[in-house]
């Protein structure tokens, strides 16, 4: 992770022969699978024996679920409460995927493929829900509202949303990764060639405030922002005159 | 001046360009400071609406941040995946 010369994700598993020849797995895919399996295991464990008085993992899970439902109800309104499981999954997954730098690995979302996949998912969710709530004719008509001259601007607006969403997440997390790499290599250089320490001792305590900002605060903020923008755009897409 | 290779010239100008493009941060910093100041003002006026103000402010700050993120992407592309060197 702390290598400034190459900012792309490393290839960690590759096949030279056999049926999977030429296939390779980057650390992005590896850690994405690990994080999703971890979230699934947590949900299964916390919902295994449900009790009336929650304790342990069930209490944490209930806290998360309640927080998600409150957030969705406040942002999108009561009629969109069905989106809460999706938003909660997105939030939880992004939280852990962003915070991988805390244990010294490359965050999953510092790879543009990952963020683009997520934002394309959100894009199709928005378009399909817009089509379902407006009907096919109404869907195509709302591009021409308030007057047909707005058509290109509306289309551009719809297509720039996933691009800016994915670039926002990617840029924020990658900036954190680069700054952490620069700080770590600078501290390593200082302790090695200036103070002549046998081990890079300066790397131990000094980056802690930066770690707290880039690996705890920023992941929470970016996961919140991603799910917040997703929610508000879905709510905008299915807003009809009755609500 | 004559002993500079074209690659070095393009790379040097790209580095300067990536520094200039990050000047977007000036405007974004001003805008985000104004927005946060207004949010603090409205929280001081109505402390009971803190949650709503904070979440709206964070969403707005994220939208404001988009331009500086695009500038960061351009700067990173110029530094690490320069498309101009291949055209020489």
Would you mind describing this structure in some detail?
The complex is a heterodimer of chains A (243) and B (88). With 243 residues, chain A is an all-alpha fold. Chain A has one domain (11-237). Chain A has six helices and two strands, in the order ββαααααα. Chain A has helices at 27-46, 57-76, 84-98, 112-141, 151-194, 208-237; strands at residues 11-14, 24-26. A two-stranded antiparallel ribbon of chain A has the order 1-2. Chain A is globular, with a radius of gyration of 22 Å. The model of chain A has no long low-confidence stretch (mean pLDDT 86). By secondary structure, chain B is an all-alpha fold. Chain B has three helices and no strands. Chain B has helices at residues 6-21, 24-45, 50-80. The longest helix of chain B is centred in the C-terminal third of the chain and has 31 residues, at 50-80. The mean pLDDT of chain B is 89. The interface between A and B is medium-sized, with 17 and 14 residues.
Q: How many helices of chain B in DSSP terms?
A: 3
Oligomer: heterodimer
C-alpha Rg of chain A, in Å? 22 Å
Largest interface pair: A-B, 17 and 14 residues
- Tell me the distance between the termini of chain B: 18 Å
Overall pLDDT score of chain B: 89
> What is the strand content of chain B?
under 5%
Largest sheet of chain A: 2 strands, antiparallel
Q: Round the Cα radius of gyration of chain B to an integer and report it.
A: 20 Å
Number of strands of chain A: 2
Major beta sheet of chain B, specifics? none
The pLDDT mean of chain A sits at 86
User: Which consecutive residue ranges of chain B, at least 5 long each, have pLDDT under 50?
Assistant: none
- State the separation between the terminal residues of chain A, measured CA to CA: 48 Å
